[in-house]
Amino acid sequence: MVKRLLSIFICALIIFAQPLPVFADDAQVTTWERVEDERFEQDMAGQKEETQVPAAEPGEEKAPLWLRIGLKYGSSAVSSSTVTCDSGFILADVERYSCEEAEDLSEYTSLYVECSGGKVFVYDEKDGEELFELGSGQMLMSADPDPDSRIVTIDGSRYRDGVSYRAYGDSMSVINRVTLEHYVPGVVANEMGYTYPAEALKAQAVTARSYAVCSLGKHGSYGFDLCTGQNCQVYRGVSSERQSTTDACRATEDMVITYEDKPVSGYYYAYSSGWTLDSQDVWTSQPGYLLGVKDEYAEEYLWKASVSFDSLRSRLNAAGYSCGEIQSVSVKKKLDNGAVYTLTVSTDSGDIDISKSAINGALSTFGVKSLFFYISGTDYPKNESRPVGSFFALGGVPYEPEEKVYVVGADGEAVEVSASDLYILRGKKAMEAFASGKTSYFDEDAEDGMLYMTGFGWGHSVGMPQVSAKNMALAGRTYDEILKYYYTGIEIRSLHGE
Ligand SMILES: [Zn+2]
Predict the structure, then answer these.
(1) For residue 428, which phi and psi values (nearest 5 degrees)?
(2) For residue 58, what pLDDT is reported?
(3) Å from CA of 318 to ligand 1 middle
(4) Residues 265, 252: Cα–Cα separation, whole Å
(5) Pairing between β-strand 138-142 and β-strand 151-154 as defined by DSSP bridges
(6) Among 327, 293, 292, 282, which residue's Cα sits nearest to residue 309?
(7) Ligand 1 centre and the CA of 320: distance in Å?
(8) How many angstroms separate the alpha carbon of residue 39 from the centre of ligand 1?
(9) What residues flank ion ligand 1 with Cβ within 5 A?
């Protein structure tokens, strides 16, 4: 009876704890959309630029790496642009590791830029006087003598360092020219809640920096390296910087993730399912550092999804499958860690097998958030219970199985127990426990022609789960320990050498 009460309490703790405000209002959870597939394969295709990082002599300043971030391009390309800076401007010739002043423009605080016939012309915005033609290797940079205070307002939004343009006929790409260390703070708070503990933010800063270094030339056909969306990393310049994230970037200055002596991209997602996955079990390529690990810092995130066979059929047909009337959906293959690898959709015109990330492509719009799920009524383990200590973090802090925890029963008595003696109830037992109403995560009366799924975790499950990184930081681990836990065989090194 005591065990039953304990179980109920833990179950309640975990279920009622779900809507944790773990992501700050202006941060965003990395959602797993089809763009993730494309992004991963693009990243692995490796037609990007390799650069030789100039080694810094002892005592000498490290030459900053200059990035090109596409703010407007393609269908959002413009024919004119306005750039302002209270400190005035410098016209600079900029390359990967150099930035030379070509002309002092500090008397101009507002410039108007127009594109015509494949050329870019700069005017004094105040009197309309044409000043010069801007070369593609040149940028308009803030004239502020302190590099960390250089901010320009490009078409109404504030970015660090400077701006350049790439003309295509009568329209042009707008490109923020920014150093790596000035770019990363504009990313971190968009990708992880800025209220997260410092070591988690540092881990995120290093992954963001590594990703940028590995993406030079990624959007080369548009004249820049990285875009500002989820295809690369969400970047909003100065408006998304926070003190905590800027501190995390400064504390990890120049540090990147390397594998076999080369910088590599760190992939990450929101909530772990207790295991991370080999990248080849989600996408296709398998670099050695993206191997699945058992995640002792997972925080349970449960979800429930359902879809009618008719809607699923439409979705599959829209995605190019030839799907007849659906009769049933079942799991054909599961990995040892519980992730669904292949799903079989049985139809009146034959079976359709869907594997790995394509499962999410088919089901994410119906609320499926990870590959770790059960289909109700078929493979759902109605009476399964899982030990707590080996899998879950309680209240955000991971417990060692032998560690003592205190549990309050329904009678108000606190009881000391081992974490390994605690169980989470699932399926019918949990339904009985929650007969009073909080049963929505579990089985319910199924309707014919519907697919019901219950799962856990949120994201593609490759690399670092951000909520687990938070829990590791709360447990006293450092950012390099966090990164090495989730990325196999990596080193954390200075981009410019030791
Ligand atoms: Zn991109």
Answers:
(1) -65, -40
(2) 76
(3) 25
(4) 16
(5) unpaired
(6) 327
(7) 25
(8) 8
(9) 227, 231-232
Q: What are the pLDDT digits (tens) for 164-199?
A: 999 998 999 999 999 999 999 999 999 998 999 999
227 CA distance to ligand 1 centroid (A)? 4
Angle, CA of 200, 205 and 206, to the nearest 5°? 100
Q: Are the CB atoms for 486 and 286 separated by under 8 Å?
A: no
Amino acid at 14: I
pTM: 0.80
Q: Classify burial at 320, counting beta carbons within 10 Å of its beta carbon; exposed 0-12, middle 13-18, buried 19 or more.
A: exposed
**3-class secondary structure, 438:** coil
In this structure, which long-range contacts are made by residues 425-429, counting pairs with CB atoms below 8 Å and at least 24 apart in sequence? 425/7, 425/8, 425/11, 425/385, 426/381, 426/382, 426/383, 426/384, 426/385, 426/386, 427/380, 427/381, 427/382, 427/383, 427/384, 428/382, 428/383, 429/383, 429/385
Question: Is 108 in contact with 124 (CB distance < 8 Å)?
Answer: yes
Centroid of ligand 1 to alpha carbon of 277 (angstroms): 24
Under-50 pLDDT residues of the chain: 1-35, 380-399, 425-443
**How many Å lie between the centroid of ligand 1 and the Cα of residue 228?**
7
